[in-house]
Amino acid sequence: MSDRDDGAVFRIGFTVLDRQIVDAEGVNVAKVDDVEFTWTSGELPAMTALVGDTAALGPRIAGRLGGFWETVLARLRPPDEEPTRIPVGDVERFVPATVLSTPAPRGMRPLEDWLGRRVLARIPGGRR
Amino acid sequence: MLETFAPCARAPGRPSAATLPPSAAPSRARLLIRAPGLTRAFVLALGLVLAVLALTGCVAPTPTADSHRDAAEQTVVDLLSAVATGILVADAHRRDLALGPYLETTAGDAEEAARSIADTFGVLQPPTPEADLLRARLTPLCDDAVNALADLRIALNRDDAEGVAEAARLLAHSSDALTLLQGELS
Amino acid sequence: MRWLTGFTLGLLTAVGGFLDIGDLVANSVVGSRFGMTLAWVVPVGLVGLMLFTEMSARVTATTGRGTFDLVRERLGPRVGLANLLASYLITFLTFAAQLGGMALALELASGIHYLLWVPVAAAFVWIVLWRLSFERMEKTYGILGLALVVFGVALWMLGPDWGVLLEDAASFAPPAQEGPAVWWYYAIALFGAAMTPYTVLFFSSGGVEEKWGPRDLATAKVNVFFGLPLGGLLSLCIMACAAVVLMPAGIQVSDLGQVALPVVSVLGKVGLIVVILGFVAATFGASLESGLSAAYAVSQYFGWRWGKALPPEKAPYFHLVIMVSLLAGVLFMLTGLDPITVTEYSLVFSAAALPLTYLPIFVVANDRGYLGDRVNSRFTNILGSLYLVLLCAVSVAAVPLMVYTKAGQ
């Protein structure tokens, strides 16, 4: 499938997937694990968001292992939490890394942030 | 009507067309249809080979006269290495070339190694009367080497120069006897 | 003038940081059992290491990204995951071996049993990884690691018959008392020690930490082309010392204390202190590097925030991987497995996994999309392809030889 942006044609497999998403301040956000398309009736499907959710990586790895991966990680996620997604509108460019025009959306990685705030910051030298 | 079309919602294991460059999609799909059976067979075969390898490793080989002799030869070589280490350590102590902790640790390591070598040979079942004779000759040599190294370690611990010299003499004697046996075995 | 000191420092760091417990053990064991007949393996491994380290440095300086970052991008998540699993397991094994080596070196210095030193060493490694800046960390263990030059000094003072040593080195056949299977097995182990996978991983991620740009590429190249060979020369000195002192005595190295014997015999107490300092510095440096490499690999695959440049609370998963790896490493060594044995196994398994580590680098370094005009030259590609064939051959032979020779007996 291809997408058009200023007439440039690119392939998701190479240009988008597995790229590192970096926010406007240069901080790593996630890898593009999957891509979200929206299909309005009467129009072609369009890429609407990048999914940086490690669980979504599952099916792309291998059949059984991948499905298992996805199920386990999906179960570990709190029920009302959305998978991490970045609207395509926020993307400034795709290569060589996917750079966003905005700082990383808050709450994208709640467990990691909690770990940083509550555990690592408490150890002396953690905030340096 | 807006439908959010998330490719990952598809059946796991089948790559969605969106994640593949178009040219690769058809051949990939064909390979995948055959892949589950192939992969399973391959994994089973690999598992079988590994199991066979592991089992042949685990089961102790039937002792033959040759393998017993080889084990004896290896024992002699390894013991000579430990004894020679002890001799060099004793020499270093005599010439005041090194510090206490280093000498003690190195001598202790040599002693441990010798003990382990002697034990490994000791548990072997001699298959023939010749092997019995070999064992009868080698076992006291093993004990002598281990004891001499132990004496060395103890003397080094106490910084006892005479004790170290005596241990060095025992080690030299042990080395000579082992070298003699090595000559006969090879 | 400042440029010159910076350059010298980098060079010295490369030399001092080259050797680790794998090199110490492999070179010493080989020298004591096979004399100099396996000396040829060191330059062969060295050339391969220089080749791929240069590629990796070029990729980092041009793209500003680490190796693993690009592996998943270029080769897909499946291959990337296979690469990650193999790399992590082997780097972990190496990491545990380095911790064990550090504990052994401290035992030689103190007489206190090495198992008691394992947690202490790990704690020290963790503190440095937690607090010390990247550059300062590198320079400290790099300079201290230069203490191992004492092996060169000892060799010189032993006054060996250089003719005999060279003859041995050129003979390309095992000595009379050893068989060909064991000879090739140790050749592979020595090769694995020279081409340690974690070195390249660390080097490229370190380049990102230090924010290399195209200007730093020249310095990096000098470090690679001068620093690494000097490190290789040190390896050969260790081998030669063992060949000259230990082999005639019939000593086959199985403990770290024996590695130092040649130095002690000719340089006495001063030599002993310097060599133990060198052991501690080398294993300490390698612990830091392999621990960081493991964390770099995992973080870069998953796209997490990583790096020593960030305060720990800003890169939580990265530091979590370090802590978990440290804990697992300590527990692994506390089972009482002989660190020398663990080292030897880590070398053979490293050798077995070499293609998996180096092939992705080769692919990325040829990609015009990342490097533009700085892709591999034809010469680099030819040499690189030859090496990849060699790596595959080594990889295929490694484990069967290990089983056949019962790990080198």
TrEMBL record, chain A:
It comes from the Bacteria. This is Uncharacterized protein. It comes from Nocardiopsis flavescens.
TrEMBL record, chain B:
This is Uncharacterized protein. The chain crosses the membrane at residues 37-57. Residues 1-22 are annotated as: Disordered. Keywords: Membrane, Transmembrane, Transmembrane helix.
TrEMBL record, chain C:
The keyword Transmembrane helix applies. GO terms for biological process: iron ion transmembrane transport. It holds the Pfam family Nramp. GO terms for cellular component: plasma membrane. InterPro entries: NRAMP_fam (IPR001046). The chain crosses the membrane at residues 33-52, 81-106, 112-129, 141-159, 183-203, 224-251, 271-296, 317-335, 347-365, 386-404. Its main location: membrane. It is found in: Membrane. The keyword NAD does not apply. GO terms for molecular function: cadmium ion transmembrane transporter activity; manganese ion transmembrane transporter activity. Keywords: Membrane, Transmembrane, Transmembrane helix, Transport. This is Mn2+ and Fe2+ transporters of the NRAMP family.
